[in-house]
Design brief:
By secondary structure, this protein is α/β, with parallel strands linked by helices. It is built from 8 helices and 6 strands, in the order βααβααβαβαβαβα.
Length: 234
């Protein structure tokens, strides 16, 4: 049974994450592809809302390449990385009616392994979250921000930028659940993050698509079991 109030979430890649394959001549091709993609997203939003009631919908903007683009670690991209993130925040998100919940997912990707790039700390994710919440021209209901590799679970310097997070009532979820170390790892990362952010939810680092195991249902059940272990944490 689907509980009352549960929404159908649709994850849509932000432009740079959708168009990262334009590697031959990125500086020439990306602006054209970006305009076409944003037009397509606008049409698809209308089509989506005509099929699913707004009160049943939640839309999440997924970003795995925007982060790396801004970090400057993608060999094929050109100048203007911040604008490739900031521009669509102001152009795409305001098209979504207030009745639909909206969130942003900031991570560094998991293909071919996770993370594709490990940042020194959460500084960029905090900066992106602050900007998105301030410039979306509507309520942002949540932000999801990727955590560190398991070996850095107690690295205070990684989590310290969370003190600069300014997102008001937007719910914060930290991607600090990892199958590799389960409950014990989650509790270590939760304890470290809690030094700098007092109230947050937890989530998988990025997504479930490349998690180990052959049974997706069992993977989800295990994730729920690990996340619920924090109920015993003061």
């Amino acid at each position: 049974m689907i509980p009352a109030g549960l929404r159908f979430q649709v994850g849509l890649p932000f432009p740079s994450s959708a168009l990262n394959g334009f590697k031959a001549d990125f500086a020439r091709d990306y602006p054209t592809a970006e305009r076409a993609y944003e037009e397509l997203v606008g049409r698809e939003l209308v089509r989506l809302m005509s099929s699913v009631p707004a009160s049943d919908l939640a839309i999440q903007w997924d970003m795995a390449y925007e982060t790396q683009d801004i970090e400057g670690v993608l060999a094929w991209t050109a100048e203007g990385a911040w604008e490739r993130f900031a521009g669509p925040v102001a152009r795409l998100t305001p098209q979504i009616p207030d009745e639909i919940m909206v969130g942003y997912h900031f991570c560094y990707g998991t293909f071919p392994e996770w993370p594709m790039y490990e940042a020194r700390d959460m500084g960029l994710l905090v900066r992106m979250a602050n900007y998105a919440v301030a410039n979306s021209e509507r309520t942002v209901d949540w932000v999801h921000m990727a955590g560190p590799r398991y070996l850095r679970s107690e690295d205070r310097s990684f989590f310290r930028p969370l003190v600069d997070l300014e997102v008001g009532d937007t719910r914060v979820f930290l991607g600090i659940v990892q199958p590799v170390d389960g409950v014990s790892g989650l509790k270590r990362r939760h304890a470290t993050a809690s030094r700098y952010l007092s109230d947050f939810g937890v989530a998988m680092y990025c997504g479930f698509g490349r998690q180990p195991g052959t049974d997706p249902i069992e993977t989800m059940r295990e994730h729920a079991r690990v996340a619920r272990s924090l109920r015993d944490v003061d």
